[in-house]
Amino acid sequence: MPHTSAPVLVSSIASQRDADAFRALNEEWISRLFTLEEEDRAILGDPFGRIVGPGGDVLLAREQDSGTAVGCVALLAYPDGVFELAKMAVAPAAQGRGIGRRLVAAAIERARARGGTRLFLGTNSKLAPAIHLYEEAGFVRITRNRLPVADYYARADTLMELT
Length: 163
Description:
Helix content is 34%, strand content 28%. The chain is built from 5 helices and 7 strands; from the N terminus they run βαααβββαβαββ. The protein has helices spanning 16-33, 38-45, 47-52, 99-113, 128-136, and strands spanning 8-12, 57-63, 69-78, 82-90, 118-123, 139-142, 158-162. Strand 3 and strand 4 (82-90) form a beta hairpin. The protein is globular.
């Protein structure tokens, strides 16, 4: 089934209002399906300091007409051109419109533009639509020992990297 392009604009966060939207979009799904971990709270509470400042980015998908944030994704920067695709969310009312697909594509493009040589993510097997989306974008499953970080989210039982 072909996906229709959603009438949204994707751009980097630029204000506290954008940061608040990023936090709200993520807190909704994480709290509904899992438990917010301390690392979630730290990153969502300070995306400029924890993500943007160290060389990453947070992208928001906004409705063209209203400017309402309906989706987001973060790119966390690590040494040696490694990035983590994280904190992706699409508002429940906006799902099924191709917004997640647009966000993943924009994040991959942004990581490459910032010199990224490796892009990884962690997700959960409960999130089958997200896993399918990542696989469509070229991500493949990896084992925990392939992660470039030692301490990772307890809920992440599916680990992937872009090949």
